[in-house]
Write a structure and sequence with these properties.
single chain; 248 residues; alpha/beta; Alpha/beta knot; Trp Operon Repressor, Chain A; two-stranded antiparallel ribbon; 10 helices; binds ligand 9WO
Length: 248
């Protein structure tokens, strides 16, 4: 997968991907991250990329021309990327959408600054606007970093095989189970006995029950969207009984 990150502050993000899982994927050449700075495509003698908004109001707007010139430079090499603009107005980023994006050979991620970019650029050059949540940032860079991270994990070879297979099982439709490690007693609290039992079938069941229960408590909307198997229904009911929340 090739990522093309478009930003007037590209260094903000490149540092992030020098370490960790994505850093290793870059080192193994499973992914590449190219950066493009629209300032370099500005015809203005001060390399300006912004101007005051038509209609008035506070702040500045990124101009069409430097962005369009950057897009032309990016599209000059094949395969042409799928162009994504990160903004609060976009389609919510989910694990399912990340999966679709991971199928693309090349993704261009456009990071706005100031109050946003000229709408005509979005209309003509952007394939999809994506939001990572209902909040406003100072720019799209952090959202692009989030997207690169979550999409990279889905590219074959980026995670260990065991890891990726396990994560596929529920397509991330429910939360992870809680995790414990040594020592057996921490902060006066013992780790759940079952995890030390060595009975892997019981452990898997317990983990699924915890995952379903915690998801239901925190995000019932995620559970109601699922069609649970009879076993999963039973485990969730058991979890809720134990927490004295009663029947479904
Ligand atoms: C600024 C602003 C000020 C007052 C009221 C509403 C406002 N919205 C914005 C705004 O959206 N500014 C953006 C900053 C312009 C484009 C880049 N910026 C951005 C991207 N902020 N937050 C994102 C973002 C991207 C993806 N997912 C969540 C947030």
């Amino acid at each position: 997968m090739q990522f093309d990150l478009v930003s007037i502050f590209p260094e903000m993000i490149t540092q992030w991907f020098e370490q960790g899982v994505v850093g290793r994927a870059v080192a193994k050449e499973l992914i590449t991250i190219n950066t493009w700075n629209p300032r370099e495509y500005s015809e203005d003698r001060h390399q300006r990329v912004d101007d005051r908004p038509f209609g008035g109001g506070p702040g500045m707007v990124m101009q069409y021309a430097p962005l369009a010139e950057t897009a032309n430079a990016i599209n000059a090499s094949e395969p042409k990327p799928f162009h994504v603009y990160l903004s609060p107005q976009g389609e919510p980023l989910t694990q399912a959408l990340a999966g679709k994006l991971a199928e693309q050979p090349r993704l261009a991620l456009w990071c706005g600054r100031y109050e946003g970019v000229d709408q005509r650029f979005i209309d003509q050059h952007i394939d999809l606007e994506i939001s990572i949540g209902d909040f406003v940032l100072s720019g799209g860079e952090l959202a692009a970093a989030v997207l690169i991270d979550t999409v990279s994990r889905l590219i074959p070879g980026v995670l260990g095989d065991a890891n990726s297979a396990a994560e596929d099982s529920f397509q991330q439709a429910i939360f992870d189970h809680p995790h414990y490690t040594r020592p057996e007693i921490a902060g006066r609290i013992p780790a759940p006995e079952i995890l030390l039992s060595g009975n892997h079938a019981h452990i898997a069941k317990w983990r699924l029950k915890e995952a379903l229960g915690r998801t239901f408590l925190q995000r019932p909307d995620l559970i109601t969207r699922l069609v649970l198997t009879t076993e999963q229904e039973a485990l969730l009911a058991e979890f809720l009984q134990e927490y004295h929340i009663g029947e479904l």
